[in-house]
Amino acid sequence: MLKIENLTVEVAGKILLRDINLEVGKGHTNVLFGPNGAGKSALMRTIMGFSGYKVVSGRILFKGEDITELSVDERARKGIGIMMQRPPDMAGVRLRELVRAASGEKMDPEVLARALDMGRFLDRDVNVGFSGGEIKRSELLQLAAQGPDFYLLDEPESGVDLVSIEQVGTMIRGMLCAGIECAGERYEKGKSALIITHTGQVLDYVQADKGYILCNGMVMCSGNPLELLSEIKKRGYEECVRCKLKR
Ligand SMILES: Nc1ncnc2c1ncn2[C@@H]1O[C@H](COP(=O)(O)OP(=O)(O)O)[C@@H](O)[C@H]1O
Ligand SMILES: [Mg+2]
User: For residue 206, how far is its CA from the centre of ligand 1 (angstroms)?
Assistant: First the structure.
């Protein structure tokens, strides 16, 4: 579904990502770990095609096609959707309008929002005065309306309290597995995702296939996500850099 080859990215005249290789198969969920400032969000923003993230070398393939030079909206139309870590407030724009637009005017925002228990937010300005959990749920509602094949989820649990995390986690699980419980089985029509997580909490809800550790703009290692998480908890990220230097 997504293949990143030898990607090096420059932002504001500085190299932020170096020689990144990463691959997410159809129906697979991969997770990205890494300390603050590692370049995780920058990688997602580069995949989505946000301005300011200049690809110096390498390429991004989506469904086999080179999308490195495409605009954000072209990538969205091809089936990539992003949930941002800190989306902006949009005073004057009602959530209802955004949800309708995200669905290409095809969906009734009311029906979708009700299914996700977000009905009462539709007539509020997007994110204005929303709590941390509500912001994440609003992002997920917009993503559900867009219905991408590939989800980029940037720290879905950040700023979400322990009770709301269950709502957010359950929503993500439903979206990635087309509403069908995974129960350890690969669901054929499942969507693909790349999820950034600090805490690993999202892994209580979503079964991930592979994890990557990003430090200083480089992939330090990859492997079983739960094993990586337990290593990080035990030894911290400094050890990742030392370990990489040893190899
Ligand atoms: N648009 C930008 N302009 C300047 N610096 C940026 C920009 N985007 C990210 N950075 C810098 O790149 C580094 C990595 O940021 P980011 O990808 O947000 O890290 P994280 O791994 O915490 O998500 C940080 O030092 C950040 O300040
Ligand atoms: Mg980030």
Answer: 26
